[in-house]
Design a protein that fits this description.
Radius of gyration: 20 Å
CATH class of the largest domain: Mainly Alpha
Number of domains: 2
Shape: elongated
Strand content: 5-15%
Length: about 190
């Protein structure tokens, strides 16, 4: 899928990024809302702070958008519970999102790390593909920043661009290290018994 993927008349970038945490957990399998909260807290809590009410609000919105559905499961001594699953459209939206690099450096901390987490868990998704695509975007950003720096009109503007260049260089170095590690693990799997 490409970045022009449109879902219900809205592109992926217009969705609340927290929706993809919920979609990603459901991509791993059906779950009760509380289980989604627990998974998000345990596995992604160092990235996201999603409260229970927020997760249930996201589930309601995703259901209205026909990206998830639920089945009511009766319980003997407790109220019925809802088990949520992805619809085919929900799966398509999530799969499109998780495979695309981010284009703004400020999205690295939340969205990219979330994509990296889920792409490592999903069959058929490769972290190396995502890392390579993200490196390409960052290198293009460096070229653009170099041009921007050459056109700076003031000292403060130059300092701001230099800051962005330094941050982008650090991200490129980090991504390169992750890609090297990913490729090393991949080649070890192919060689091993």
């Amino acid at each position: 899928m490409n970045s022009e993927f449109v879902d219900s008349g809205r592109d992926l970038s217009s969705r609340n990024p927290a929706e993809f945490v919920v979609l990603g957990i459901l991509r791993l399998g059906p779950a009760h809302g509380y289980d989604i909260c627990r998974h998000a807290r345990k596995e992604l809590g160092f990235i996201w702070r999603l409260g229970t009410a927020q997760v249930y609000g996201l589930l309601n919105k995703l259901q209205r958008d026909e990206l998830v559905f639920h089945e009511r499961i009766d319980q003997l001594s407790k109220p019925a519970k809802k088990i949520f699953s992805l619809t085919p459209a929900g799966r398509e939206v999530f799969d499109a999102w998780v495979s695309l690099p981010v284009h703004n450096m400020r999205e690295m901390r939340l969205e990219f790390l979330t994509k990296l987490y889920f792409s490592g868990l999903m069959p058929g998704q490769e972290n190396a593909n995502l890392l390579s695509a993200q490196l390409e975007v960052c290198r293009e950003k460096m070229d653009w920043l170099a041009t921007l720096k050459a056109d700076c009109a003031s000292g403060l503007e130059r300092k701001a661009v230099e800051f962005r260049i330094t941050m982008t260089k650090a991200v490129i170095q980090w991504l390169t290290g992750l890609l090297d590690m990913s490729e090393s693990v991949s080649s070890n799997r192919k060689i091993g018994p």
